[in-house]
Amino acid sequence: MIVAGSARAHDLGIAANIAVLDAAAHLKAFARMDGAMLGSIDLSIGKARTSALFQISSEAVWDYCKPGAPAHNLEASNGGLMPFPGGLPVAAADGTIIGAIGVSGGAPSQDLDIAEAAVAALIG
Q1: Closest by alpha carbon to 111, among 85, 90, 89, 88?
Q2: Matching SUPFAM superfamilies, A to Z (predicted)?
Q3: 109 vs 39, 84, 85, 114, CA distance in Å?
């Protein structure tokens, strides 16, 4: 996943941080591409953690915590969530969530694109 994500980031001209977590939201793998912003390290891990904790994309968590939503301010829970694009759950062939990936370094849509490429490489 790290290799595939890094390759996609390179194709996009992005220096990204890529974090892979297990289903319990523990860091399993991490890569910081040369030139990737230091501030994005925490963001990549946070996006993956948000996705792992809720078993949905980090972006989808925003629907629950935005102003007026049922769980307004949810992003302040669990030590802080990152409810924007770039974090995706990773599922086994049977649908069981086995982890999550988080990417930060580009625009939110680019981070999501990189994460999708990494997940696609795993599922083949």
Answers
A1: 85
A2: GlcG-like
A3: 18, 10, 7, 9
Domain residue limits, the chain: 2-123
Secondary structure (DSSP) of the chain: -HHHHHHHHHHHT---EEEEEETTS-EEEEEE-TT--THHHHHHHHHHHHHHHHTS-HHHHHHHHSTTSTTTTGGGSTT----SSSEEEEE-TTS-EEEEEEEESS-HHHHHHHHHHHHHHHH-
Mean pLDDT in the chain?
95
pLDDT at 60: 96
Q: Return the structure tokens found at 39.
A: 């501030």
Q: Please give the single-letter amino acid code of residue 49.
A: R
Which CATH architecture fits 2-123?
2-Layer Sandwich (3.30)
Residue 45: which of 55, 33, 58, 54 has the closest Cα? 58
Distances in whole angstroms, Cα of residue 4 to Cα of each of 53, 73, 80:
24, 34, 28
